[in-house]
Inverse folding.
């Protein structure tokens, strides 16, 4: 029999491999010649500031950059807080079975432990254990048969929902802003740290174009000519258009940002004072586009003389579902331990939010975390000793995402949006912080495709069956199953037996089954 097979092409993304590995990253922090020697270490911190990945056979090469930072008390008649930083590059392989060079990878770094050793009064050796979690993705295409055409053909159809992967596009953006120091604060003496993250994201999807309106929050830690440590935020708005040829307004876009470079320049104002800081941030805007399709397809068929075997394959894919944001205001009064000296004045407070647990419940992503607070203050005693105190403040966030289910894949990040502090008493510090949790969800989807259809002749007993057969309906029978068994049509069975509801037949019912062509 001559059959016409109608085919469709599906694009999808799937997880090939997941791996996790630890690596030791070591670095030397050498105090600048212009800075005083170390008298006391107040805190040591580190973060992975850059990650580049290369997918190889069964593994992923991670090229990273680690930034170490120390706070220390200087030697001298009156100790002051100094900050010294150093960057260290590292390479590490993460095992990822079935990974191949044509695939893409996402790596999430985290610091498990951080230790240091004082080598001299001008040098510190720092060791960090970094955990690298890698997920390898593959972009795939598969051809599926969705319909068949032929003479005397009876077919059964259903619908299949798929989340198609459409495109992966990246646009480069340069964002510029300025920080002006008030005259009474002195001048910029040393820029110690400049961090940045994207927030306040608003996405507009149009035909062939995605418009991103967002802000970069840049936090600047600096030292003034008055030997004062200060931290100030600069919120820089930007707009970026990403041209995506196949994009339609009904599609979904997973938009992510990656800071690739942070640069600055200290400028003089009209009075000749170094009170202007020009900030330039380079970032990549990555857009993964998905299209949710409902496909009508033929899942079974036969004729009066043939049956067909549908050769199927199961496809597992992932698709972007949606995202949400939750902001939490943390207000806490920290009490200094009894064995420490009381507070004369606060010199510096830093805080880092860390997610400790993320879980999906119905319609929500619930996140537990801690705000790691480091406070440096001058003690009340006569020597005005510098004291460092650290405390973790717990917080909880609940990101609402309609339709969230526990079997989805989550991806959550947390950023510090605001931080302020004040001395409440000789042993207490008031902390106010705003943290923002952004959570994304991805669907794990499985669907069957028809790779091929093979024709099978029916038995001679069916070819020579009587014009009418009396059949007793069995449990789990449907009219389609009965019609296929006798190579007749559902419509003929319905007409001959005056069946009012073809979807409702009961076990024990007696039906007359006509041979194909009998009703004519």
């Amino acid at each position: 029999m001559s059959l016409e097979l109608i085919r469709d092409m599906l694009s999808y993304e799937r997880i090939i491999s997941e791996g996790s590995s630890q690596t030791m990253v070591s670095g030397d922090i050498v105090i600048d010649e212009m800075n005083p020697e170390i008298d006391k270490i107040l805190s040591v911190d580190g973060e992975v500031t850059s990650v580049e990945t290369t997918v190889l056979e069964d593994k992923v090469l991670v090229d990273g950059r680690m930034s170490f930072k120390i706070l220390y008390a200087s030697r001298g008649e009156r100790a002051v807080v100094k900050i010294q930083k150093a960057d260290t590059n590292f390479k590490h392989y993460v095992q990822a079975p079935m990974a191949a060079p044509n695939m893409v990878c996402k790596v999430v770094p985290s610091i498990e432990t951080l230790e240091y050793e004082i080598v001299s009064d001008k040098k510190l050796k720092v060791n960090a254990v970094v955990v690298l979690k890698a997920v390898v993705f593959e972009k795939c295409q598969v051809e599926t048969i969705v319909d068949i055409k032929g003479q005397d053909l009876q077919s059964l159809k259903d619908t299949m929902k798929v989340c198609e992967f459409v495109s992966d596009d990246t646009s480069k953006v340069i964002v510029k802003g300025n920080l002006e120091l008030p005259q009474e604060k002195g001048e910029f003496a040393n820029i110690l740290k400049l961090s940045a993250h994207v927030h306040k994201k608003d996405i507009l999807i149009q035909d062939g174009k995605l418009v991103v309106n967002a802000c970069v929050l840049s936090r600047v830690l600096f030292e003034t000519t008055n030997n004062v440590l200060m931290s100030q935020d600069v919120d820089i708005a930007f707009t970026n258009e990403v041209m995506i040829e196949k994009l339609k307004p009904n599609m979904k876009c997973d938009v992510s940002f990656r800071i690739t470079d942070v640069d600055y320049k200290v400028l003089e104002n009209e009075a000749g004072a170094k009170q202007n800081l020009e900030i330039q941030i380079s970032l990549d805007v990555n857009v993964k586009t998905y299209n949710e399709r409902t496909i009508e397809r033929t899942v079974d068929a036969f004729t009066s003389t043939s049956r067909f075997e549908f050769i199927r394959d199961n496809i597992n894919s992932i698709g972007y579902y949606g995202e949400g944001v939750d902001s939490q205001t943390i207000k806490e009064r920290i009490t200094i331990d009894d064995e420490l000296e009381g507070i004369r004045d606060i010199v510096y407070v830093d805080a880092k939010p860390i997610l400790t647990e993320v879980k999906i419940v119905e319609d929500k992503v619930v996140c537990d975390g801690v705000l790691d607070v480091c406070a440096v203050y001058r003690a009340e005693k006569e020597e005005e000793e510098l004291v460092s105190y650290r405390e973790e403040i717990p917080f909880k966030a609940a990101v609402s995402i309609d339709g969230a289910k526990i079997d989805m894949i989550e991806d959550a990040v947390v950023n510090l949006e605001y931080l302020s502090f004040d001395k409440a008493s000789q042993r207490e510090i008031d902390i106010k912080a705003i943290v923002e949790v952004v959570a994304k969800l991805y669907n794990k989807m499985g669907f069957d495709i028809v790779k091929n259809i093979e024709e099978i002749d029916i038995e001679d007993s069916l070819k020579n069956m009587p014009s009418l057969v009396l059949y007793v309906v069995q449990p789990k029978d449907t009219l389609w199953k009965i019609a296929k068994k006798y190579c007749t049509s559902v419509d003929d069975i319905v007409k001959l037996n005056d069946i009012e509801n073809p979807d409702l037949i009961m076990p024990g019912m007696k039906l007359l089954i006509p041979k194909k062509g009998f009703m004519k």
Remarks:
- DSSP finds three helices and 20 strands in the chain.
- The CA atoms of residues 203 and 212 lie 5 Å apart.
- The first strand starts at residue 4 and ends at 30.
